[in-house]
Structures are given as structure tokens and as C-alpha cells.
Amino acid sequence: MPIISGKNYYNGMEQITQLKNVLSYIKQSFVGKDEITDLLGISLVARENLFLLGPPGTAKSAIVRLLSECLEGGRNFEYLLTRFTEPNELFGPFDIRKLKEGELVTNTEGMLPEASLVFLDEIFNANSAILNSLLLALNEKLFRRGKETRKLPALMFVGASNLLPEDEALNALLDRFLLRVKCDYVHPDRLQEVLLAGWNMERGTGEDRPVITPEAIMALQAASRSIDLASIRKQYIDVIHSLRNTGIKVSDRHAVKLQHLIAASALLCNRQQAILSDLWVLKYIWDTEEQMEILAGIINSVIENSTDEQAHPQAFYNSVPQPDEVMKEVLLLRDTWNTPQLSFEAQNVIKDKLRYVQTRCDWIQNPEQKRFIQQEIEGLWQKMLQLN
Questions:
Q1: Taking all residues of the chain, what is their mean pLDDT, rounded to a whole number?
Q2: CA-based nearest residue to 49, from 118, 113, 115, 110
Q3: What residues have CB less than 8 Å from 139, skipping those under 6 apart?
Q4: Which of 75, 114, 267, 382 has the smallest number of Cβ neighbours within 10 A?
Q5: Distance between alpha carbon 269 and the CA centroid of its chain, in Å?
Q6: Would you put residue 299 in left (φ > 0), alpha (ψ -120 to 50) or beta?
Q7: What secondary structure, in 3-state letters, does 328-371 show?
Q8: Please, are residues 138 and 177 in contact by the beta-carbon 8 Å criterion?
Q9: Whole-angstrom Cα distance, residue 354 to residue 333?
Q10: pLDDT, mean of residues 154-169
């Protein structure tokens, strides 16, 4: 069944192809960044914001910059925030001519309010002077200054930082980014590919850059809203309850918005209906690094039985857990369990997490490592039972 009916069907297919060509080009330019690239594409179609976490030199800025260069005719805005960044630097200064006439009107030419794609590096350097305006822009896609209010044309906001926020006041900023992606250094085995791709980019020897217009992206955003989610809604609700019981916060607002990501995954697979594997996007809603492995275990256990050939390529990527990461989680749970005066609610959360870690352990391929970790898990269960 076509995604876009009637005479617009072929145009819709062409727009999907254009976006896939752009994403493929970025993957070829940045080795080992397929996951990030595909999630940028999902965020674009869903019109939701994405946050990149990673150390300097992991190509966070370069990937977003190349994506913005592939937006033909789009006005893109990039800024490195500091503690001293002022509103004028992001939103533009007041129009002097209008000010002389007694009107407070912002001159937004070339600034954030006119951009199709916005990239804010080191976003957690945002100070109180710009925080409220940023929160409104990120959440509502609105710019408000005095009596002036306007809708923003931004297709997506991308934020980046080397570290997660420690100040609770800045947690509201992270909350406005629905998807969160870890950007690490490429595996040493692929260093030669990285060097060759980087050398070709700097020499300009790569293939002609594919492009897509902001209007085409907006058409895909509109098309994604017509995706049928009925077939997976029950499983989706069950997953949200499961995440909440495990201690991973999913607000009602986020639960509604996450449907946009699921629909975007279906659309980019040329489907009008969501399938179980489209829930893969829920692996990227963590608040802390410790939640990454837990989320992967929970979501992979839900979608592992899906064998649909039309699944998104990233749905089952890297689904086999790393033994050291599983062991690290077991030790963390053990240390937390040993915390003095642990509340009954906290004990239940630890038990839920341990069940999911135990499920992940079943997928470990090395039998010796698997057996050792299972023994550690069984020992922790025995300790929990003794307390009861």
C-alpha cells in the first residue's frame, strides 16, 4: 500500500530516495558513523531534536555540517555556545531603524530564527540569559521576544556536548532532545578506512554531493504523520510501562513524541504501517550513560522475534551485547544493592534491571564469559533472596 496516495506517490518515493542518498553519502564520508547518520535521518523526518554526546575529535560537528550542506537552499545555523553567549548572538540584534520608531523588532537575518537546520555545540554552556528562549525554540519551534512571536522553520535542532549536564537547571535542555546518541572514536581496526575517507574529503575527490530541499523534508514530515501505528501500539504501551518500572523516565509528552520516531522509521523503509522492529529507536532515549545497555537489552528483547524483511537496517545492528558491558552492569547493580538503607522501591528497580541484564547475558556468544557472568548474576539473586 503506497505511503503517499494518488499522483503524489512517485514524488513521495523520490523524496525518500533523495534523503537515503544523502544519508549514504554521509556514511561513506564518515566511517563507522552509520548509526548516528541514520538517527539524524530519523530525526529529520520526525521533526524531533537529536543530541550527540562524545569527546572532541569524534566528528560530531563535521557530520552535522555535511548534512546541512546537503540541504539545498536551506539556511543553516551553527554556533558554539559559551557561558557568556548572549541572546543577540543566536537570535539576532534589535533592528535599529525600528527601534528609533519605538518598536522592538529583532533583525533575524542569517540567525537561528531563519534556519532550516540548527546545530548548537557545547549546548550545556547555555546561561540563564538564553535558556528560556532556547527551551521554547527547542520544544515549541517558536521564537518569542517581548511582543514578538514567530514560528521557526527549523526542520530539526541538533545539540552536542562532551559531557552530560551536572546542573539540574540544564537537565531541561537535555529533555528537549528526544534522541540521544553516543559518538565515540572509531574502532582501531577501521582506522585505515577513516584515514582514506578523511584524505579524500580534504582533497575533494569524493563523488558529487547529493542534495535534498527543505521542502522535500517537510513533505516527508507530513507523510510520516499518516503512518499507521495501530499494529504496534499495544507493544509500545507495554514497553513504556516496562521502562518506567525499570526506573527509566518516560514522560507522557515524550511517550507521544516518540511515536513520531517510530513512524519515521517505517516511512524510511517505504512502509505505511509500523512494525515491531520500528521500536528500535527507543534504545536512544537514555538520560545517563548507564542506561544505554539497559535500554538496548529491553528493546532488543522486544524486537528480537521480528523477522520482517522490511525492518530498518539499524533495528538489529549491534544487538549482541559485549560481555564486559554486561559484567559492568552486574557489578553496578551489586554495589547499588549493598547501599545501606535501600528503600523497598529502589530494591524493586534493581531487581527489574537485573532481570533485563540476565536476558542480555543469554545472548553472549563466548560460553566461558557467559557462564562466569551468569554465576555472578545468580550470586546476586541469592543475596537478594536472603534479605527477603
A1: 87
A2: 118
A3: 176
A4: 382
A5: 18
A6: alpha
A7: HHHHHHHHHHCCCCCCHHHHHHHHHHHHHHHHHHCCCCCHHHHH
A8: yes
A9: 7
A10: 92
Q: How far apart are CA 352 and CA 329, in angstroms?
A: 13
Q: Smallest Cα–Cα separation from 153: which of 105, 221, 254, 85?
A: 221
pLDDT of residue 7: 42
- Please state, in angstroms and rounded to a whole number, the distance separating the CA atoms of residues 144 and 134: 10
Instruction: Judge whether residue 80 has pLDDT over 90.
Output: yes
- 43: closest CA among 138, 177, 172, 160? 177
What is the DSSP-derived secondary structure letter of residue 311?
S
pLDDT at 23: 95
Report the DSSP beta bridge partners of residue 132: none
**In the structure grid, which three cell numbers stand for residue 24, read together?**
549514504
How many other β-carbons are positioned within 10 Å of the β-carbon of residue 100? Answer: 8
Q: Is the pLDDT of residue 192 over 90?
A: no
Position 83: which residue type?
R
In terms of residues, how long is the chain? Answer: 388
Cell of 179: 534522541
151-155, 188-192, 352-356: least confident range: 188-192
Per-residue pLDDT band for 6 (boundaries 50, 70, 90) equals: very low
| Set of cell numbers at residue 61 | 560537528
Cell numbers representing residue 49 in the block? 531534536
Least confident interval from 43-52, 193-202, 234-243: 193-202
When pLDDT is averaged across residues 314-341 and rounded to a whole number, the result is 81
Round to whole Å and give the CA distance between 276 and 283.
14
Produce one character per residue of 249-286: b if its CB has 16 or more CB atoms within 10 Å, e if not. ebeeeeeebbbbbbbbbbbbbebbbbbbbbbbbbbbbb
SS3 content of the chain, % helix, strand, coil (to 5): 55, 10, 35
Distance (Å, whole) CA 167 – CA 272:
42
Whose grid coordinates read 539499524?
A: 314
Buried b (16+ CB within 10 A) or exposed e, 167-192: eeebeebbbbbbbbbebeebeeeeee
